[in-house]
Amino acid sequence: MVTILFLAANPVDTISLRLDEELRAIDRKLRQSEFRDIFELEQQWAVRVSDLQEFLLRHKPHIVHFSGHGSQSSEIVFQDDSGYGRPVSVRALSSLFSTLKDNIRCVVLNACYSENQAQVIAQHIECVVGMSRAITDPAAISFASSFYQALGFGRSIKTAFELGCGQIDIEGLSEQDTPKLLTLRSDPRNISFQSPSDRALQPESGMQTKSCIRIRQVETDGEASLVESQARFITIGRAPKSTMKISDPQVSWEHGQIILMHGTYYYHHISNTSPTTVQRKGESYLLRPGKHEDFPLRNQDRLIIGNIKLVIEFDLIAEDKGYTTTSKKPENT
Q: What is the phi/psi pair of residue 314, to 5°?
């Protein structure tokens, strides 16, 4: 599941913005998209400075979208306890994302003069969108709705950004050059939220795969459970909802996923802070934090996650148009 956290602030001493229309437009486009079932849109309104840490910790978003005002000094304007504007400095907001970056892959600052803020946040987050100057409500809404529509159809962040700017141009708003995409750590052409884990949730044409996977723990300093499953999608991490919950401080909340796709199991590395090592017949393959790599698994591979070693065992029987292949060697006849 991809969580989008929509943060909105329109202090009483600032010009009224059409933030509710922006949210409705985003929600409608996501609901009409191909991969709508993998997106969860969370919303928080009248966001105060004191709320920011709590909301990021509570929702653990993959995308953070701020809608509201920005100052000419590149400060995002939240609210104080009385509802009045409270600017947050570039340094303070950057520090927040540096600390709470574990799940976040994209930040959208849909606010005036937010480009400088985006540049600093991009030192910690893979993709950040900011506005180079003031942006009108119609342009902000057009950009956001098209951006998320593209993500919902499995397009990359780069393509989504270009379509968002293009929609502003199509509507004749003459602000298509205002949004800026900042990427210092990754190529936005290679980042989408329709990864192999999402494709695994879609029906496969022409192939039915029967499978059983067992994840067995050995040599551990923490706690984990034996998992045996016929599911196509298994999650690993400290989160209570994980298929395999691991109580180890070196393991991320959402650390990785095992996905069955087109007859092959893949390990999809999620963590932005901790690595995973795959061991296979005396060789080791390091999956680094923040790279979000997909690694094809073989029977008896071992995953080193934190202080825990997991042995992967599986049986696959893939049937395609009357032909059958299995993971076991055929007997001599």
A: -155, 155
Looking at per-residue pLDDT, the higher value among 200 and 269 belongs to 269
List Cβ neighbours of 234 (8 Å cut-off, separation of 6 or more): 213, 215, 227, 243, 244, 257, 258, 259
Across 157-182, b (16+ Cβ under 10 Å) vs e yields: bbbbbbbbbebbeeeebebbebbbbb
Average pLDDT over residues 275-293: 89
Instruction: Give the Cα separation of 276 and 268 in Å (integer).
Output: 10
**Contact, 62 vs 2, CB < 8 A?**
yes
57 closest CA partner among 288, 320, 253 = 253
Q: Which helix or strand (DSSP H or E) is residue 304 part of?
A: strand 302-305
3-state helix, strand, coil in the chain (%, to 5): 25, 35, 40
- Highest-confidence range of 187-201, 204-218, 258-272, by mean pLDDT? 258-272
pTM summary value = 0.64
Predicted confidence at residue 325, as pLDDT, reads 32
Topology of the domain comprising 203-326: Tumour Suppressor Smad4 (2.60.200)
* Class of the CATH-defined domain 2-190: alpha beta
Instruction: Give yes or no for residue 254 having a pLDDT over 50.
Output: yes
Which one-letter amino acid corresponds to residue 62? H
What are the Cα distances from residue 289, in Å, to 141, 149, 269, 318?
34, 28, 8, 33
What CA–CA distance (Å, rounded) separates 114 from 108? 10
**In the chain, where does the domain assigned CATH 2.60.200.20 lie?**
203-326
The answer to whether residues 19 and 57 touch, using CB atoms and an 8 Å cutoff, is: no
